[in-house]
C-alpha cells in the first residue's frame, strides 16, 4: 500500500508514520506534501529519502475548489492508496473529501467527539477535564468527524499548561497513529485504544 502524508508544520507525526513503514510493514510512504514551503517536516522527509511536494494554498486566495484540484492532482501523481493527514491545517471541503472517502485518515489532538477544531489542549484544561488525548479517524466532510479508528488517553495533571499537556498528548500521537496505520494497511479497521 502506498501512503501520502499531508503536513503543514514540524511533521513529528509524519516522521513517526514514515519510520514505522519499513520491513514487513504492508505500507510505504511515497509522498510528503505540505501546503506551505515553511513546513519543517519537508526537510525531515527529504532526509528520510521520501519524495516531497508543496501545493501552496495562498495563490488560490479563497478559491478552495481550485486549491483542492491542484492538491488532488499532485497527490494522484504519486498514486497513493491512502492519505494520512498529519497536522495538515487546511479544512478540506466535501468536493475533495468525497474523492478520498474511506481512504483518508486524520489525527486530532483530543478525545473526539470532544473538542473539534483548534486550541484543544487549552479548552480541555479550561473545562477541568481529568483526561485528554488524541484520536485517529477516517475523514468525512464534517470537520473532525468520521468513524473513530483509535484513541489514546493521558491524564490532565495539576499545573498543566496547554504546552505541557500538548507534549504529553503528542507522545501518544506518535504511538497511536502508526498503530492505526499498520492495522488499516492490513485491511483491518477495528478500533484501537491505547
Ligand atoms: C499534532 O498535534 C496534530 O494532532 C495536530 O497538529 C499537530 C501537528 O504536529 N493536528 C491538528 O490540530 C489537526 N486539526 P506535527 O506536525 O509535529 O505532527
TrEMBL record:
<comment type="similarity">
    <text>Belongs to the GART family.</text>
</comment>
<dbReference type="Pfam" id="PF00551">
    <property type="entry name" value="Formyl_trans_N"/>
</dbReference>
<dbReference type="InterPro" id="IPR036477">
    <property type="entry name" value="Formyl_transf_N_sf"/>
</dbReference>
<dbReference type="GO" id="GO:0005829">
    <property type="term" value="C:cytosol"/>
</dbReference>
<dbReference type="GO" id="GO:0006189">
    <property type="term" value="P:'de novo' IMP biosynthetic process"/>
</dbReference>
<protein>
    <recommendedName>
        <fullName>Phosphoribosylglycinamide formyltransferase</fullName>
        <ecNumber>2.1.2.2</ecNumber>
    </recommendedName>
</protein>
<feature type="site" description="Raises pKa of active site His">
    <location>
        <position position="144"/>
    </location>
</feature>
<feature type="binding site">
    <location>
        <position position="64"/>
    </location>
    <ligand>
        <name>(6R)-10-formyltetrahydrofolate</name>
    </ligand>
</feature>
<feature type="binding site">
    <location>
        <position position="106"/>
    </location>
    <ligand>
        <name>(6R)-10-formyltetrahydrofolate</name>
    </ligand>
</feature>
<keyword id="KW-0658">Purine biosynthesis</keyword>
<dbReference type="InterPro" id="IPR004607">
    <property type="entry name" value="GART"/>
</dbReference>
<feature type="binding site">
    <location>
        <begin position="11"/>
        <end position="13"/>
    </location>
    <ligand>
        <name>N(1)-(5-phospho-beta-D-ribosyl)glycinamide</name>
    </ligand>
</feature>
<dbReference type="GO" id="GO:0004644">
    <property type="term" value="F:phosphoribosylglycinamide formyltransferase activity"/>
</dbReference>
<feature type="active site" description="Proton donor">
    <location>
        <position position="108"/>
    </location>
</feature>
<feature type="domain" description="Formyl transferase N-terminal">
    <location>
        <begin position="1"/>
        <end position="181"/>
    </location>
</feature>
<keyword id="KW-0808">Transferase</keyword>
<dbReference type="InterPro" id="IPR002376">
    <property type="entry name" value="Formyl_transf_N"/>
</dbReference>
<comment type="pathway">
    <text>Purine metabolism; IMP biosynthesis via de novo pathway; N(2)-formyl-N(1)-(5-phospho-D-ribosyl)glycinamide from N(1)-(5-phospho-D-ribosyl)glycinamide (10-formyl THF route): step 1/1.</text>
</comment>
<comment type="function">
    <text>Catalyzes the transfer of a formyl group from 10-formyltetrahydrofolate to 5-phospho-ribosyl-glycinamide (GAR), producing 5-phospho-ribosyl-N-formylglycinamide (FGAR) and tetrahydrofolate.</text>
</comment>
